[in-house]
Amino acid sequence: SAPLDDLPALPSLPESALARFLPEVRHQIQEAHGRAQADPQDAQANGRLGMILHAYDQFELAAICYQRAHLLDPGTFRWTYYLGLVQAKLGKHKEAAATLRKALELDPDYLPAQLHLAQSFLGSYQLGESRTLYEQLVKEYPDLPVAHYGLGQVETALGRTAAAVKNYQRACELAPDFGAAHYALALAYRDLKKTARSREHFSMYERNQRVRAPFEDPLFDSIEALKMGAVHHFKAGRALEAAGQIEQAIVEYEQALELKPALAQAHANLISLYTTLSRFEKAEEHYYTAVKTHPNLAEIHYNFGLLLSLQEKYREAIRSFQAAVDINPHYPDAHNNLGHMLELAGKVREAEKHYRLALENNPTHRLAHFNLGRILTKQGRYPQAIHQLVETLRVQDERTPTFMYVLADAYARAGDTQKAIHYAQEAVKRAASLGQRELAATIEKDLQELRSRVQ
Questions:
Q1: Cα angle at 15 between 260 and 44, to 5 degrees?
Q2: Which residues are CB-contacts of 204 (< 8 A; sequence separation ≥ 6)?
Q3: What is the Cα Rg of the chain in Å?
Q4: Nearest Cα to Cα of residue 103 among 88, 122, 125
Q5: 3-class SS at 413?
Q6: CA–CA separation, 45 vs 374, rounded Å?
Q7: pTM passes above 0.85
Q8: For residue 87, which of 72, 99, 76 has the smallest C-alpha distance?
Q9: How many CB atoms lie within 10 A of CB 46?
Q10: Quick one: pLDDT at residue 177?
Q11: pLDDT tens figures, 246-277
Q12: What is the pLDDT of residues 285-315, one digit of tens each?
């Protein structure tokens, strides 16, 4: 720290509006504020208060604390770096860029600071500086998805859409779950009039929109670790759920509800997760608790509908999915599942209506294309059916062999044996490569019958 005689004039310690916080968070902030007040020239105490305020998105107040900590201890990288982060959060990108430059003078090798500096250059329209830094990072860290994504953003800002696409594509290759990169790539393809590719990446974005940009920042993790209260546990649960860590996500959501029992989205997510684990009683418990206070949250009814359909309670599932679409008529998954339940109940015309409504609200909804294609095939409307089923092949995954098999059947019924054989052969290959032996054997049997027709 600086000698007392050399101390700069410090901005006053901020006072936080504590009423909005839960009791344990208020205590945490008050305790840190008391320490900084007791020793106002302690950089660590000032910085610690800033970190806690930062953790709860109190960016303006955190900035004051970080300024104080930096002035008291200008040689410590942490306080300067954190100050740059909150300035960027406040939209003060030029100030953030200047601050982050100072931070990198103290620690030139801290990669997250370099990335945030490049982003702050972009935010302040210093596109040349941003591009130079991102190009340097891409060269130095060729496997870093966020560097390619950032360079793509710069190219987009410069109107160089084709160049942006290359960078977004590389980011998606390196991190297939990087939702923001898929979204940016979808927009770029849309601008290039490549509609099919755009729809494909919009679909990938929808699956992964909760996934954070993939890079490590230990200093920022120190701030995240300070969070207490329901929101923190909910966010942690959401991150764990996105990572496929179901049991751990359940623990976090349950802890969020202990602190805030009326947190409806936590109930909705738990209905889904407990259903996934076949713990139906727990899922029902959360449904009936949530619906008392939040009857108009469509996701609660939708997730309960999934639970009921798994239990083969189709009539009750129809009511739940109908409730979801009544609340939110633009809910494609709910329309698709309602359609499936209605189809099982023999109400084919109504089912078709809801499959089409699912596609109106999400033209890339794969299962709605598949379900509609099946219905149209059964009705002998083969050209329309084939059109729908071809759409299911835009994404390649473990379901692709099944979708190809159904498409082959539609072509066979339509009298186009050659195309039926082509798709059946592809389906066999893909099923075998994925270890789906029973499916491959079933398709192979039908394929032999198809081949006999042309001999």
A1: 95
A2: 172, 176, 179, 182, 186, 395
A3: 27
A4: 88
A5: helix
A6: 65
A7: no
A8: 99
A9: 29
A10: 86
A11: 999 999 999 888 877 878 999 999 999 999 99
A12: 999 999 988 899 999 999 999 999 999 999 9
